[in-house]
Amino acid sequence: MGTWKELSLGRRRFVATAGAGFGASVAGVALARPALAAPKPEKLLFMADNAPWHGTMMQDAAPAFQKETGIRVEFTQLPDDALIVRYKSELSAKSSSIDVAQIGTSWVSWMSPHIEDVTQLMAKADNPYAADFGWDDIVPSVRQIGNYDGKQIGIPYRLTMAILHYQPEVLKQAGFDKPPTTWDEMLKTAIAITKAGDGKRYGLGFCMREGPAMTDQWATFLYSNGGRFYDAKTHEIFVNQPPGIEALQYYGDLLSKYKVVVPDAVTWEWDEIIAGGQNDRYGMTITLAPSGTMLNDPKLSKTGGRWAWTVAPGAHQPDQSRTFLSGWSLGVPSYSKNKEWAFAFIQFIAGRYWSLRSMEKGNSPARLSVLQNPEIGKKYGWPPAAAQAVNTAITSPQDPLYGAMELALRPGISRVVMGETNAKSALDQVAGNWQRIFRRGASL
After folding, report:
1. pLDDT of 151-171, one tens digit each?
2. Which residue from 158, 234, 352, 414 has the fewest beta carbons nearer than 10 Å?
3. Is the dihedral of CA 87, 89, 91, 95 positive or negative?
4. Are 138 and 36 spatial neighbours (Cβ–Cβ below 8 Å)?
5. pLDDT tens-digit series, residues 193-249
């Protein structure tokens, strides 16, 4: 591997000197302005969610692309639910307004008919960024987040999984020399941290607002107890079986019974979980691995430099640790009038150089060569835990009905978190709603 110093050089010097660090020579890559056959547009419209990890893409890579090509990239950012609504409206109308689409793992089924196959786009790409794109550096298990039914509609850009973020000194002050590896250990540690925090710092922080972040965070508990959601082919429902019930009751009790979770976590999603950690509201969290960059940056965080990372605790044994494997892929809508240039931009920002640079502002690149790079691990801390978590992670559901299923699950999780009901009653109701969704889906 090239050293971090080598890898952080300017783009042109990087191409000339650091290619061997990624296991492939890039010395021959042309860096002249692209000369594609397609007419050059004035701008490209990029649809994305409103999470903060786009910093490098928007602030650094897009301006660099404009400097090299003369094409401005305009970003439209929306919360997840609003982004879904916008996509369904634009794509069903075959609108040509979107050139680059950010695609969620669980959205690939319904977006697939409207998005170009990127393997075909790669086969005919003649832009300078295609020559050393390094598709083999994105392993098949990771490619799956942008694949549906054999069609690769997106190039994976951001890989997400949950890991345990913790402050070693906070744990030590509470009487613990190592992070928890099971749920029982986590509860004991959280109780001690909360007691020592005296209302200012709690043991745990979670995204417990009734939204998509809550579902993802609870999925790690479900999977780590051997649970599953459902079988998309047979329609067998697993979520209300004993592993799911135990996982949800434990998760909800952390807040409503044991009171070891920051109370206002019921209003938190992805931005708030980061802000809470930066302001020392909790000693531990199980959340997105790349959040560690912003938690641990002294320029952004009051707790900068105090964090460490490992895989999420298993339910009863450490080797039960599991998490979801999800993320964001980048694709080209079939109705775009600028497909070649849109794909050139995707290959530009998802290539080796900008994938590595995106670590600087909170991304978790889909290239495992980056996450497994010793220099990257030394600089950011969390990548080794993320790379380890990928080995046992479970790809988030991708079937066409999951969007409706996930919406029906949120209230069940929320009611248990708020102490309004027990996990069995909540999940039995969820399972009943899911059965109706399956019946409706089969009749369409």
Report:
1. 999 999 999 999 999 999 999
2. 234
3. negative
4. no
5. 999 999 999 999 999 999 989 999 999 999 999 999 999 999 999 999 999 999 999
Bridge partner residues of 151 (DSSP): 148
What is the pTM assigned to this prediction? 0.84
For 22-31, the CB contacts below 8 A with 24+ separation are 22/134, 22/137, 22/352, 22/369, 23/137, 23/369, 24/132, 24/134, 24/137, 25/132, 26/131, 26/132, 26/352, 28/131, 28/132, 29/128, 29/131, 29/132, 30/128, 30/131, 31/68, 31/128
The residue with tokens 């964090």 is 307
Burial per residue of 383-393, b for 16 or more beta-carbon CB atoms within 10 angstroms, e otherwise: bbbbbbbbebb
The token pair that represents 43 in the structure block: 């701008």
For the range 32-39, what are the long-range contacts, defined as Cβ-Cβ under 8 Å and sequence gap of 24 or more? 32/128, 33/68, 33/69, 33/70, 34/68, 34/69, 34/127, 34/128, 34/129, 34/341, 34/344, 36/126, 36/127, 36/340, 36/341, 36/344, 37/126, 37/340, 38/338, 38/339, 38/340, 38/341
**% pLDDT > 70, the chain:** 91
Report yes or no: 441 and 400 within 8 Å, Cβ to Cβ: yes
Cα–Cα dist 342/46, whole Å? 9
Model pLDDT for residues 101-126, shown as the tens digit of each residue:
999 999 999 999 999 999 999 999 99
pLDDT of residue 5 exceeding 70, the answer is no
- Distance separating alpha carbons of residues 397 and 143, to the nearest angstrom: 14
Residue labelled with tokens 């590595």: 356
Residue type, 95: S
Q: Among 57, 110, 54, which Cα is nearest to 84's?
A: 110
Q: How far apart are CA 195 and CA 73, in angstroms?
A: 50
How high is the pLDDT of residue 368? 86
Q: What pLDDT shows up at residue 37?
A: 67
155 phi and psi angles, rounded to 5 deg: -90, 115
